[in-house]
Specification:
By secondary structure, the protein is mainly alpha-helical. Helices cover 55% and strands 0% of the residues. It has two domains: 2-59; 62-94. The chain binds zinc ion.
């Protein structure tokens, strides 16, 4: 799964950033560009991950939940099998 690759990359970026900030704190100079670059790429990774999560959510729509008793129901359910509440299809186009 591509998202775990991005998460790994994100982790690496963050730990590299941590190192750089600590080096700066100790008085190392000339690290601003590198910090900037890492911050930017981490931000991009974050956006990319958010988009992927969205795509995954679209591909795997959650099964309906009974609005009355919150029971999780099968995709095809028209009525709750526990309390009989009618399940409203909130995606009539699909
Ligand atoms: Zn119910």
């Amino acid at each position: 799964m591509e998202i775990s690759k991005l998460e790994k990359e994100m982790e690496n970026n963050l730990s590299a950033l941590g190192n750089l900030v600590f080096m700066q704190y100790k008085g190392e100079e000339g690290l601003e560009d590198e910090v900037d670059r890492l911050l930017q790429s981490t931000r991009e990774l974050e956006t990319e991950m958010a988009e992927l999560h969205e795509q995954i959510a679209r591909l795997n729509p959650k099964p309906p939940t009974c609005p009355s008793c919150q029971t999780q129901l099968p995709y095809v359910a028209k009525f709750c099998y526990i309390c009989g509440t009618k399940i409203v299809d909130d995606n009539p186009a699909g």
